[in-house]
Amino acid sequence: MNSSAVAADLTSLTGVAFSKGHGTGNDFILIADPEGEQQISAAAVAAACDRHRGIGADGLIRAVRSQALPEARELLERHPDAEWFMDYRNADGSISEMCGNGVRVFVQFLLDSGLVALAPGDVLGIGTRAGIKWVSRTDQGFAVDLGPWSFSHPETALERGVDSLVTADSLDVTRPGLSISTGNAHTVVALAQRSELDELALHRAPVVEPVPENGSNVEFALPHDPLVLDGIAEISMRVFERGVGETLSCGTGACAAAAATRFWAGAGAPDLWRVNVPGGVLGVRFFTAADGEEHVELSGPAVIVAQGVFG
Ligand SMILES: N[C@@H](CCC[C@H](N)C(=O)O)C(=O)O
């Protein structure tokens, strides 16, 4: 995008108040729009997220009351508790269903703005395009029940353990990948050595074949050796996010990487996982929820660093 186009698209946000926050280095611009009055174009999102000519961020999140958003009506009928909806956009302006780091930062933003209250031990339901997400406080920040995770191609995954091929610039051979949904699309590749993770070149999107219909976030996961220590399994991960590029962290991606590695590890792999990302550490927990399904929970910090007004 050239600088005059960025300036023009930013003008559409003039006077709009924002906060800037991050979760393990995955950073977001947050805007409160309770009555759903803001029309924020994809170009305006991209201009705001531009790291040289805008505020700079991996994504933009608009906080809208679910009842003010036609696309949230069905969710609100099923979950009248979901007062607030997280309208998430990637840095290129594209829409995503979910953002695991984003939902924690979103809740911190709602709390700081006095729009919600969340006492220790309570849960807050947040509407997203991937359904309601239940958020609670932890010592380190927040835990989010992302709901059930699933294989994108269950038959192939169960039969072959993988379902796709992934090529990144720095990998000398194409590697098998496993496609997993944690509300949004992920393809996880297992690496064998620390040097492969460190030397990954993620300046360009890895190629996934067959090409996922709506694109995919791609996670490269290195299981630690030993994988399990004191009942907690540990992996390190880097990610190329759909609609963004390489980011310092991806919450839904951390859950997908843990789910894939746990599946590959076989019976007896633990439910508790520690996922190291370039921007910090995330916790992942698998548990059987009241609906009888296996859910995945993401935990980690959420920090608001600045407030301002687009000028
Ligand atoms: N960083 C997020 C995921 C954001 C959306 C993703 N790029 C997509 O297009 O699905 C996370 O923390 O989960």
Automatic annotation (TrEMBL):
Principal localisation: cytoplasm
Reactions accelerated catalytically: (2S,6S)-2,6-diaminopimelate = meso-2,6-diaminopimelate
E.C. number(s) listed in UniProt: 5.1.1.7
PANTHER family: DIAMINOPIMELATE EPIMERASE, DIAMINOPIMELATE EPIMERASE, CHLOROPLASTIC
PROSITE patterns for the chain: DAP_EPIMERASE (PS01326)
Superkingdom field: Bacteria
Keywords (A to Z) from UniProt: Amino-acid biosynthesis, Cytoplasm, Isomerase, Lysine biosynthesis
Listed GO MF terms: diaminopimelate epimerase activity
Pathway: Amino-acid biosynthesis; L-lysine biosynthesis via DAP pathway; DL-2,6-diaminopimelate from LL-2,6-diaminopimelate: step 1/1
Pfam families: DAP_epimerase
Record-linked SUPFAM superfamilies: Diaminopimelate epimerase-like (SSF54506)
HAMAP family membership: DAP_epimerase
Designated name of the protein: Diaminopimelate epimerase
Protein task: Catalyzes the stereoinversion of LL-2,6-diaminopimelate (L,L-DAP) to meso-diaminopimelate (meso-DAP), a precursor of L-lysine and an essential component of the bacterial peptidoglycan.
